[in-house]
Amino acid sequence: MKNTSQTTTFKPLEGGTFKFACHPGVSCFTQCCAKLRLLLTPYDILRIKRRLGLDSERFLDQYAESVFEPGIVFPMVLLKMNSQDGYCPFLTSKGCSIYEDRPGACRLYPIGRASAFPTGGDRAREKFFIVTEDHCQGFREDRLWTIDEWLNHEGMYLYNKMNDPWTRIVTSNKPLGPENTLPQKLKMFFMASYNLDRFRQFLFHSPFFEKFYVEGDIRLKLARDDEALMNFAFDWLRFALFGEKTLTPRIDKSVPFGA
Ligand code: SF4
Ligand code: SF4
Description:
- With 259 residues, the protein is an alpha+beta fold.
- The protein folds into two domains: 2-170, no CATH class; 179-242, no CATH class.
- The protein contains ten helices and twelve strands.
- The chain has helices spanning 42-52, 56-63, 104-108, 147-153, 156-170, 182-194, 196-204, 208-211, 216-224, 226-242, and strands at residues 2-3, 8-12, 17-19, 36-37, 39-40, 64-68, 75-79, 91-92, 95-96, 111-116, 125-133, 144-146.
- The protein has a three-stranded antiparallel beta sheet with strand order 2-11-10.
- Helix 5 (156-170) runs parallel beside helix 10, helix 6 (182-194) packs antiparallel against helix 10 (226-242) and helix 9 packs across helix 10.
- Residues 33, 36, 88, 90-91, 96, 98, 102-103, 106 line the site of one iron/sulfur cluster.
- Residues 22, 26, 28-32, 109, 135-138 line the site of one iron/sulfur cluster.
């Protein structure tokens, strides 16, 4: 998350602790919720669209724009700020209207997290740093945090658990296969990452289950449970993009890419 009109500084976290507090009493309250370049992860979108009672297609149309970031081959999604005043569409005079479902980037600030995924390892290697913006008065407060306390307080362990399998895909340097299959693969990446409702239709209204072996109880879960569907979408992406053995084809090995 970056405020595009402020100076942002990244500093190493010294001594493993930092002082910070954000509450309605700070003079800068909600000033950070404007002019943001706020990248949304699949789990961010799942939480917010459910909160708003929208399907993913409607959410993307109304609140998101697709961009390509330097060094990343896959399309990313940004939260659209209000075109008139530049504020986040979820900001109200009382603060964040989706607070319990706010994006991971809003939770994590003022901490930055860099993650790497060693080959063969399941867990991310993490590095944390402090992100300061000149308008943020939260650093003048006396509350002392360890990283662990902050991640717990902000519900970030769940967000990292849900998003890390996707981050591993996005940051992978595995080859994507022949050039001419790339547009179709990127389209499929977009659907499986951000448009979960469309991905569900793709699974249940194409010959997908004739081509891949998926047990009946898992299919039932995929029909009803968005989190299970999202995890399945990541397995599907690893299979279809990189040829990993995350799914079991039945006989015909041709891969349906979906719409
Ligand atoms: S203290 Fe920082 S994070 Fe909190 S409202 Fe102010 S600018 Fe935003
Ligand atoms: S989602 Fe909430 S916390 Fe995040 S920028 Fe918008 S109003 Fe602020």
